[in-house]
Amino acid sequence: MVAGIAEKVAKVREEIAEAAAKSGRAASRVKLMGVTKYHSLEAMEEAAPLVDLIGENRVQEAAAKRAAWPPGLTSCPWHMIGRLQKNKIRRAMETFDLIESVDSAGIAAAINRIAGEKCVSAYPVFIEVNVSGEEAKGGLAPEAAPAALGAVLESCPRVEVRGLMTVARDTDDEGELRRIFSALRELREKLRRSSGLPLPELSMGMSGDFRVAIEEGSTIVRIGSAIFGKRNYNNKNTIDKGAE
Ligand SMILES: *Cc1c(COP(=O)(O)O)cnc(C)c1O
């Protein structure tokens, strides 16, 4: 047992329900992702039955954890939410059920090619958009998203774009967070019109900002520290064997 995880998940679920109610949405439309990077397999086993999705940032860490997953313990789908290097795409597709961090037509083309080799007819992805415009961040510029989605539709028949993902600015300014999240929602509307795709998923909101994200239409909140506590970046217990 890892103390406190069940209680923390319950508290987050309560806050999700409150934010959904406040904005007239059904809480059942908001999936809870437990973000488990740098946390132990033991903590993950505790959380797995209580969350809807598992999110990891690094291919190698996630692959090691999946390989060590106890047989018989059910697991919800795993999503890749971190920066994706071209040479790790194959491993990422073998490890994750969906990649949320596709941020170039080139990455989509590589996924399409590998899906072809594996006879996968539709590998699901989200497009990551850098709405806040911070330089260090992954994601396409919002202005570049329509053309990128057009290119994926045109030349990547084995890539299924199901939605959009963003990481907001690290700020307590609610107005600014609201602008970022509503901009992603509006971009989704625009892309729906230009592509005809339903794009049902909006992955936005983390421990510090998920209430605002839900009020602005989030369908997936990615929660790490509010469930698992602070990440220890030197954690030797996480079974990540190599530097990435
Ligand atoms: C680490 C991470 C999260 C979770 O962050 P918390 O603030 O701990 O909830 C969510 N999304 C992405 C992309 C992350 O890298």
UniProtKB/TrEMBL annotation:
Alphabetical list of SUPFAM superfamilies matching this protein: PLP-binding barrel
Pfam families: Ala_racemase_N
InterPro entries: Ala_racemase_N, PLP-binding_barrel, PyrdxlP_homeostasis
Organism: Synergistes jonesii
Main function: Pyridoxal 5'-phosphate (PLP)-binding protein, which is involved in PLP homeostasis.
Keywords: Pyridoxal phosphate
Xref: NCBIfam families: YggS family pyridoxal phosphate-dependent enzyme
Family: Belongs to the pyridoxal phosphate-binding protein YggS/PROSC family.
Domain Alanine racemase N-terminal: 26-230
One GO MF term: pyridoxal phosphate binding
Protein name according to UniProt: Pyridoxal phosphate homeostasis protein
Sites of N6-(pyridoxal phosphate)lysine modification: 37
Cofactor: pyridoxal 5'-phosphate
